[in-house]
Each structure stands twice: as C-alpha cells, then as structure tokens.
Amino acid sequence: MNDIDAWVWWLVGAAALGIPLVVTAMPEFGMLAVGAVAAAVVAGFGFDLVVQVIAFLVVSVALIAVVRPIATRHSRQRPQLATGIDALKGKQAVVLERVDGSGGRIKLAGEIWSARSLDTGRAYDVGAEVDVVDIEGATAIVM
C-alpha cells in the first residue's frame, strides 16, 4: 500500500463514519471521522502507518474527551427564552367570567382563554387576578 493509497483509504473511512453519523445522529461518529481526516492529512505528508494510526487515535480521543462533555452539558440545558405555553406558565391573568373547578374565562397575555381552578373547591370572581399554573390543551389551570 503506497502513500497515495493510504490517504485515500483514510478519506474513505471518514466518509464511512459519516454515514452512521447522519443515520443515528451520534456525534461520536463525526469525531471519529475528523480523526480519520487527520490521519489522511498525516498520510498525505508521507508518514508511515503507525504515525497515521496515532494521529487518528489522538484526534478522535481528544475530540470525544473535550467536545462530547460540552455538547452533553448544552443539550441538557433548558432554553433561556420560554416560548409557547411554557411562556404563559407563571403569568398573571384577569378573570372575565367566574372561574371554578368546572370552568370559566380569563384574559391571559392579551387573549381570552378558557380556564379552571386548580383547587376544585375554589372560585374566582370577575376582575380577580389569578396565576397560571399550567396549560392543558386550550385551558389554563389557575390559582
């Protein structure tokens, strides 16, 4: 196997590692593919197989050891900007029609919502301010 064959084989290996990266969405395959590209570069400069394998291992392990924990930490963080119904939880609303355990209407974020009381024995009269605890479908749960 001559030098040109070696770097081509490393690039074929990188492409082969890219396929499961796309199919499984596991970033580790991408990191291994980058290691294979590094080995292809080393092979292109004419280094022998041992140096190529060492370059592949060093780059791959370094990426997995450094990038993977950072990516895992970021994937577990909640978005700082709440949108949709998550943005409505914890907001205050004004009662438009009496709200009790069976229903009612509130004005929440400029829109009229159906609502019901979290505590089924509690009722809120027109004009009262309530806190939105949860959203179930199109109904706000208030207290």
UniProtKB/TrEMBL annotation:
It is found in: Membrane. The chain crosses the membrane at residues 6-23, 53-71. The keyword Protein transport does not apply. InterPro entries: Membrane_assoc_protease (IPR052165), NA-bd_OB-fold (IPR012340), NfeD-like_C (IPR002810). Gene3D superfamilies: Nucleic acid-binding proteins. Pfam families: NfeD (PF01957). Keywords: Membrane, Transmembrane, Transmembrane helix. It is a multi-pass membrane protein. Its main location: membrane. SUPFAM superfamilies: NfeD domain-like. Residues 86-142 form the NfeD-like C-terminal domain. This is NfeD family protein.
